[in-house]
Amino acid sequence: MERVVMKFGGTSVGTSDRIRASAARVADEAAKGHAVAVVVSAMAGETDRLLELAGAHGGALGQVETDVVLTAGEQVSAALMALELGARGLKAQSFLGWQARIETQGPPGSSRISALDAAPVLAALEQGIIPVMAGYQGIGPDNRLRTLGRGGSDLSAVALAAALGARCDIYTDVDGVYTTDPRIEPRARRIPAISYDEMLELAAQGAKVLQTRSAEMAKARGVRLRVLSSFSNDPDAEGTEVVDADLISERRIVSGVAYARDQARIGLLGVSDQPQAAAEVFGALADAEIGIDMIVQGRSRDAGTVNIEFTVDRRDLHAALDVIDSAASGSGARDIVHETGLAKVSIVGIGLNRRADVARILFRALGEKNIAVKVIATSEIKISVLIANESVELAVRALHSAYGLDAAG
Amino acid sequence: MERVVMKFGGTSVGTSDRIRASAARVADEAAKGHAVAVVVSAMAGETDRLLELAGAHGGALGQVETDVVLTAGEQVSAALMALELGARGLKAQSFLGWQARIETQGPPGSSRISALDAAPVLAALEQGIIPVMAGYQGIGPDNRLRTLGRGGSDLSAVALAAALGARCDIYTDVDGVYTTDPRIEPRARRIPAISYDEMLELAAQGAKVLQTRSAEMAKARGVRLRVLSSFSNDPDAEGTEVVDADLISERRIVSGVAYARDQARIGLLGVSDQPQAAAEVFGALADAEIGIDMIVQGRSRDAGTVNIEFTVDRRDLHAALDVIDSAASGSGARDIVHETGLAKVSIVGIGLNRRADVARILFRALGEKNIAVKVIATSEIKISVLIANESVELAVRALHSAYGLDAAG
Questions:
Q1: pLDDT at position B173
Q2: Which residues face B377 on adjacent strands?
Q3: Short-list B34, B29, B28, CA closest to B2
Q4: Start and end of every ACT domain (chains A, B) (predicted)?
């Protein structure tokens, strides 16, 4: 009996009608003779509503209690889905984070799953019960509730699938992973199959369809992953499979173009060229859980010093500057500068590292549109450029076209 | 160090402002040097919203999952209160039903507390942490969440107070227990002190300020109970103390007038006069968890048979008739009739049983207003009459005045 984890995102359980439609898909899958487990997000908008409630009482100061508030969202949608499955004559049972024994570590608000004891869920499956697990939540070492960060329900689903040896189908409001955001480029195409690494980079560079850590975990645990639409009439005919790179037959240089708006650039000018100086700053930022990106180090006007630049999310800028103000004294930076109103546009593809003209195509495409590149950062399978926020759409369309991703006709 | 359990109802945590005001009261109490534990209801309106969501998915068919939905309400308000106390510089921690180890038995939706292990809450108190317990919830024998029925947060508070040997202050949107509903009779007076038994009867007969089972438990466990307003500037100066009867100095016949609208009367006509017949019917109703009230048995036109009449809540009428249709065949009732549009008005007082003219006053007062009494039922400390729904206000005011409860001037 094949095991399937079906994960439904916020819009797929956003209303009573959507819960009914998603429950119908679960019923279809169960009717095929599969052993089905379900993972749900909170109803669309609910997490924001709860976050606002917590914010009114100094939520950020008490992240553990904020997590207790937030987990209520998935608790409700899991129980509603179990109710709806029950109303359809199926046996179903909700499992909250503490009942599914999802242990987490790390800071509240963005904990990571450290262990998932599948025994309770397996016991339900063996009794013919469909377990409906509340996504996004687990318990911390103090036996209190924790959340896994935005998009964490995907992670819950992949972790459960890995523990069960199951296939993982992620149902969302789009019918798969696209070469870029179709709201910006109508000629974007659905990618039928993509490698774990590309998926990971696309997610990391701003594509919102699947959370980075989920792709990472799917790769590490060998979980067969699909991204499907819960709105489509025939989701099996559509969707994107996330698989090992060598299983992808289509050879292409670039798989997709991702973007992330509202980035900020921070420059530490005239820092000591001894690596300890940079290590101190980045260590302090890491301790403060501030994600940094696109690090470049360049020549300074003063001997024995360098300029270090990196980007952070705009909303982390002030926290980052605070951390640097304390830490950077040790590094002796001559000056600390920052710039906002920036965006990151990235091309991702497993073929990138094999093609020498990739960078030329990139600069030519952006140059033709007079888009200035402020920073560039590369990895094996991606190139990111930092540009002005206002040029995002133009850059995405130009790169989508330049790398031959536009749909024919 | 005196221990105090402070319980805040739905309106007292209904908005961020109300949560702040209630948190300020907790801070005041803690500043007096008391060891304070808090119990909260869901934010006003939240339980109804969640119940409606569950209802859209056949909630009544899956009462255990409905309970999982409903408990989210108190989970959120408990964490918000803990956040707000934290923002005020106090140490506080939320305790959900499964964390406070509140074990329950009985049907989901109206479970009763069978055990409360105070150890986790006590451990918090001993570390100077204010425990904020989610009311209305516990866990069942299957280790899944359960709710305690409407008003169940009062029960949570009394049970916690009993376990801690604490005083229990119930903060609500009225400043105490009144001689009757002030919305119906503006001359209603606050009762400074009332006996457990009277409180229990008033609650059972429809007064909404405190749940019946809470008064019962407070009496059984000797918990000092106060009902206070969280809206008043000086709640200590107001409120109602619920105490042993012999601690009440004021001697009065009737303490209050309660009412419950939307009652239905069911009549089983021509039932065998052998007690087994009635036992079968009432047993089946009890098995179906349908509360029955005001049972009267009268003469039937046929020899060897009796007429049995009783009342149920209007919303239980159809369920009750279904149960009777199956069960009553054995009792051989000649006919089953029912009537709706009825209300119950009750007078409650520990002096009732000492005064012979109580019934005369009642019939005279109702007779003067031409209010027909359909059924009358009495106990040691209460008399209830069943009348037409439309006469409730008139009857309440007439009885309030007849028993000398109207406020002077």
A1: 87
A2: B384
A3: B34
A4: 266-338
* Chain B interface includes A303 (CB < 8 A): no
- For residue A409, the model assigns a pLDDT of 54
What residues contact residue B360 under an 8 Å CB cut-off, 6+ apart?
Answer: none
**pLDDT given at position A328:** 58
Query: With an 8 Å Cβ cutoff, is A156 touching chain B?
Result: no
**Could you give the 3-state DSSP secondary structure of residue B134?**
strand
Strand duo B225-229 + B167-172: pairing: parallel
Task: Say how far apart CA B85 and CA B76 lie, in whole Å.
Answer: 14
Q: What residues of B are in contact with residue A80 (Cβ under 8 Å)? A: 53-54, 56-57, 65, 69
Q: B113 at the A interface (CB within 8 A)?
A: no
Contacts of B99 in chain A (CB under 8 A): 143-144
A368 within 8 A of A148, measured Cβ to Cβ: no
Q: What is the per-residue pLDDT for B334?
A: 85
Asked if residues A92 and A85 have their Cβ atoms less than 8 Å apart, the reply is: yes
Residues of B with Cβ-Cβ distance to A72 under 8 angstroms: 72-73, 75-76
CATH number, domain A3-249: 3.40.1160.10
Exposed/middle/buried for residue B183 (C-beta within 10 Å: 0-12, 13-18, 19+): exposed
Q: Is A265 helix (H, G, I), strand (E, B) or coil?
A: strand
The tokens for B375 are 């059924």
> Chain B within 8 Å of A356 (Cβ-Cβ)?
no
Cα–Cα separations (whole angstroms), residue A400 to A185, A186, A189, A246, A258: 8, 11, 10, 24, 10
Q: What is the pLDDT of residue A391?
A: 96
Q: Check CB contact of B68 with chain A, cutoff 8 Å.
A: yes
Please state which CATH number belongs to domain A257-402: 3.30.2130.10
Q: Which helix (H) or strand (E) holds B382?
A: strand B382-388
What is the least distance, in Å, from the CA of B98 to any CA of chain A? 9
Under 8 Å between Cβ of A66 and A36: no
Residue B376, beta-bridge partner list: B385
- Other C-beta atoms closer than 10 Å to the C-beta of A270 total 19
Residue segments in chain B with a per-residue pLDDT below the cut of 70: 235-237, 328-331, 409
Amino acid at site B167: R
pLDDT for the residue A296: 86
C-alpha–C-alpha distance, residues A374 and A344, integer Å? 10
Contacts of A98 in chain B (CB under 8 A): 98
Name the stretches of chain A with pLDDT < 50.
none
Measure the CA–CA gap between A79 and A86, rounded to whole angstroms. Answer: 10
Domain range annotation of chain B:
3-246, 257-402
Question: Tens of pLDDT along A300-325?
Answer: 888 888 899 999 999 999 999 999 88
Q: What is the pLDDT, as a whole number, of residue A164?
A: 96
Backbone angles phi, psi at A300, to 5 degrees: -105, 165
The two structure tokens encoding residue A290: 């501030």
* Fold agreement between B3-246 and B257-402: no
- For A213-256, the pLDDT digits (tens) are 899 999 999 999 999 988 887 766 679 999 888 888 777 789 99
In the CATH scheme, what is the code of domain B3-246? 3.40.1160.10
pLDDT at B104: 96
The pair phi, psi for residue B204, each rounded to 5°, is -65, -30
Q: What is the pLDDT of residue B397?
A: 96
CA-to-CA dists, residue A215 to A108, A114, A201, A244, angstroms: 21, 16, 9, 11
Decide: B358 and B376 in contact? Cβ < 8 Å: no
